[in-house]
What we know:
With 333 residues, this protein is of the alpha/beta class. 44% of the residues lie in helices and 21% in strands. It has 2 domains: 2-87, Winged helix-like DNA-binding domain superfamily/Winged helix DNA-binding domain (Arc Repressor Mutant, subunit A, Orthogonal Bundle); 121-320, Rossmann fold, CATH 3.40.50.150. 36% of the residues are buried. S-adenosylmethionine is lined by residues 116, 127, 156-159, 161-162, 176-179, 182, 204-206, 221-223, 226.
Amino acid sequence: MEQLVTALRAIGEPTRLRILSLLARGELTVSELVNVLGQSQPRVSRHIKLLASAGIIERLPEGTWVFYRLADHGRGQKIAQSVIALLSDDDRVMARDLERLDAVKHARTNAANAYFAEVAKDWAQIRSLHLSEGSVETALCEAARGRQFKSMLDIGTGTGRMLEVFGNQTERALGIDLSHEMLNLARLNLEKAGLSHCSVRHSDLYNLPFEDGRFDLICIHQVLHYLDEPRTALSEAVRVSAPGGLIAIVDFAPHQLEFLREQHAHRRLGFTDTEMEYWMREAGLNNVTHLALRPDIQDAEANHLTVKIWTGERMSTETDLKPTPELTPEHTS
Ligand SMILES: C[S@@+](CC[C@H](N)C(=O)[O-])C[C@H]1O[C@@H](n2cnc3c(N)ncnc32)[C@H](O)[C@@H]1O
């Protein structure tokens, strides 16, 4: 009872209700909340602190940024979801907040798109700065265990490298990306490699233009750390994966290279296994595996990072659809 009263007290204030309504749309930093709410940073921080100590929201420090998101387990989650269900988008103040939130997200997406348009021609060189590409690709192929696939989707395909890597293991393959500049290069690369069964198209990974269960291999290679909502992106990918299909995610382990945010449009500084595996199981994957590829000693000076490969298989039968046992994400970096 005491806990419940504390939680309800924490929520029962107009700005804190607005914060709840905003975080219901995805995780945000304090400065993004300050921007949308139009209040000073100390005030917003005070509201956030109250919500966090009542277990309604979670604080996720990562490098010099701190992300906030709604609690996704326990009593805090139940309370947050019940109150959010009572909020109305028609409320004038909340409707204005949502407009501002859209503007903040657009500005960020535009900045990332501008980055990808600018770096497209040098992408092959940039991607090798932080990855030891050969070993990642070998490990990725091993993770696919020499399987032959009918239909592959490469999400955030960039210059189409993953289509080239898996081209010979799949009957048909498709890459999607938001950047026209990247897609133009991908088309050239596929043509050069003679991969006529592989193609690319312009599409947003949050809203894939495909029916459920279409692809038996899905790759998400070095894409999630750019996104506002990696968890939503993952669940959209799982939606279009075929029962029994394989999803391979390649991204960085948690790191501290803050300059990647300023100079290379990264949003997240890597992901923990706990967080990623929780999202994967929650989205409907099982047989989840993870592998870490650590940089060679001599590469350390070149800012190479530990690369993670996570794989999972889409649950194939109704009986696989058991609720995940008491799993909670720990979001430490
Ligand atoms: C770092 S690149 C990775 C490209 C490729 N997977 C690779 O490893 O070389 C990330 C790609 O994700 C794309 N991207 C970012 N947000 C996207 C979105 N919402 N929908 C589709 N593609 C997106 C970018 O345009 C960019 O080409």
